[in-house]
Amino acid sequence: MAAQEVFLIRHGETEWSLNGRHTGVSDIPLTENGRRVARLWQPYAAARKLALVLSSPLQRARQTCELAGLGTRAQFEDGLVEWNYGDYEGLTPQQIRALQPEWLIFRDGCPRGESPAAVGERVDRVIERIRSAAGDVAVFAHGHVLRAFGARWLGLPASAGSHFLLETATLCVLSSYHDVPAVKRWNAPLVTIGARGDESHEDHQ
Fold it and tell me: Which are the catalytic amino acids?
């Protein structure tokens, strides 16, 4: 029986992502370019038999899911909402480090926002739900929460998300290797995926 695959899709470009501003709970829409790139995932998504489609309820993730052709199947999952940045919401890394020069979100969290442990706890609940699904799953969400998701899938602490760089409009694939949680693909641009179409499902021994 084929190993379950989990497709993590980070939402497309927004005005705040272009400006480098931390976009947590602020509900910012996609730019037109973000919408264009999200549509490129349609052939890839259509080729998959998905048992479950989950999306953050924030519109940038929801729009990406809809434009990929999976909006009618999506279930909104609050556990996939982006990291709550608290006092750092809307600030750039440069502005934050002017206040706290050694700041690292995966170690320090955010004042009046979330800690790495809190994000890890809600991600764990989503992972448990996904692993109970009878088949492959698509997940539409955000950069920092998906980096924590990748770490927790592997059994690492959420703080290990600092090692998983992730750009906008990208696809990651999580699976397993002989029942050991594994990463099959990480930070692949949707532009490349859309141009190539389907991917090989060979098992690399």
Answer: 11, 82
